[in-house]
Amino acid sequence: MLKLFTHKTAKTQLTGQAYQILDQFYRSFSSNMYNELNIHRYKQIRDAVGLVMRKFDSHDHPLAYTSKLVMYIQARVCLNHLPLTKEQQSWMKKLTDITKHINLNYVYLSPLDSENQFI
């Protein structure tokens, strides 16, 4: 019983950390001059982060969606040659570490680089 309670507490703590990092990541697109001037290139990533943040509010498997988001951002950055700031890279690494043990037991209904998977 104690192990179950400890597991829930740890998961809640990870969920809180992931939300804080996503919030910082979302805000970074308006605080960085390069990203702000080129928002048309980063808009889909920023919007996807916002959609995943809504999953936290509705308690709809937020860590699983965060894990999907990490893969989505990596795909978008790679396919479109988008540079991320050092802060953004650090947040991506933290999100990867937080979500690396999350089971992704669902089928992708849209391409990996499509933000429709977060709706």
From TrEMBL:
One Pfam family, short name: EntA_Immun
GO biological process: bacteriocin immunity
Keywords tagged on the record: Bacteriocin immunity
InterPro entries referenced in this protein's UniProt entry, alphabetically: LciA_Immunity-like (IPR015046), Ta0600-like_sf (IPR023130)
Keyword presence, Lipid metabolism: no
Listed name of the protein: Bacteriocin immunity protein
UniProt organism field: Lactobacillus xujianguonis
Taxonomic lineage of the native organism: Bacteria, Bacillati, Bacillota, Bacilli, Lactobacillales
